[in-house]
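A common beginner's mistake is to predict each chain separately and then try to dock the pieces by hand. The better habit, illustrated here, is to supply every component at once so that their relative placement is modeled jointly.
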Amino acid sequence: MLKVQNLGFCVGSFELHDICLHVKPEEYFVLMGATGSGKSLLVKSICGLTRARSGRITIGGRDVTGLPPRLRGVGYVPQDSCLMPHLSVLRNVTFALEVAGESKKQAAGEIGPIVESLGIGGLLARSTVNLSGGERQKVALARALAHKPKLLLLDEPVSALDEPTRREICIVLGRVQREFSVATIHVCHSRQEAAAVHDRVGIMSEGKLIQTGTLDELTDGPADDAVRRLLCPPADKTID
Amino acid sequence: MKAGRKTASEFPPLAGRRTSALSLICLSYLSLFVVIVVTLIVTGFRYEYLSFETFKEIISSPDFLHAAQISVVGSLITLVLVVIFAVTAGYALSRYRFPGHAILDTIADIPILLPPVVVGVLLLIFFAYEPGKTMEVEMYKRTATHERTGLTMHSMVGIVLCQFIISASYAIRSAKAAYDSVDRRLEQVAMSLGCTDLQAFCRVTLPLAKNGLIAGSIMAWARAIGVFGPLVVFVGTSVRVRTLPTLIYLELSIGKEEVSLAVALVMVAMASVALAIVHWLAPGRKWH
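With all components supplied together, the output reads:
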């Protein structure tokens, strides 16, 4: 589904070095790394929000390296949901469909399955301003899925939430990803969060993708100390 | 609470003596303006300096109506130009970092800091020599017909130019602040959801910055309609270019204080309405 080949990027003194990544169709890929390791930058490059200096990105077999975000067929959920404050929950979820030219009525009809799956039917008429953190993330997820993307990019989707809500949203993410069969990249820095959702995990450090595999594979055979430190921190909170 | 910069809502309200002292200082300062305006109205009407009949007569006189028409038409043309300019320039200053950004950002403030009469002198000098002289001559030639003479700077063109230079800075500054308050990531999300740059601007940035842009435009309009110094120096005071502020000055200079007072009251009313609209549109403001 997603192939990243020798991707290079430079922001000030920070660099992404020759990133190579392959995410299979319907796979839930978790991208882990310490703060400042380049995870979000990689996701933004895949999304098209930052232009790569070198390398190639293909999504669904189509080279999207030079394409703007709107032509890449991705759904993007940033860290703190970034809902449009001037639009209702319904208009947020139907945003992409309205941009594509559908009428409000048509768009509202089309989002039915997503709304039902995420259990946000009761929120549709509300303003986004007074939603809880968990509700905001569900709405952001529905918004990203509404235009049926080939690839879903989740940039630390639960990091700003409290522990019980994180657990709940992680369960929702895993279920929705399977239900809508969309390849997903989920950025996080918690082993437990990754364990709750992942098919495969990639570890980034200092702008490089060091190692990929299942969580067990990486725990059993870490490529270096950075991977070991990330996967086996001295004391970590739990998400069951 | 997370460490870092506090938002306005996180600041606790002041209590006790400090509140009273600060409120008193604030109220004394503001009451100065109220006293001036109330005195203007009370002395005007109470001591029959300006009776209601005289007031009505003045504001329905041809001189007043002509000056009001020039002021309103000029300031509305200026407003349209200022809005177009501020909406785009404010966005560029807020969203992009390019070579010379800091210099342009500073230059945008110069008309705010310069005494208005200096702007008039600068325009006078600019159009007295090249390339301004040629520009004015070309404009004259291109607009002249058999029936009428061409446009010079001693016309609505000059009025609008003066008003634009004085007021555009306020609108640009206000537009930039309005755009700065809109989270740029909202535009990025909109682009990932199918928007072009322009669609993201129209569907997300513009609606969110709308109030600030409108408030800035009204401020700019109020500033434009009150321009005086540059008009007297650069455009002149002849009847065909006489605006309301020029009329106040001219009537005062020949001792017709009641006319000046009547025009001043009309301008105070206009400014009050503009201020009320700005206050109403400002995000987070309430009427208490």
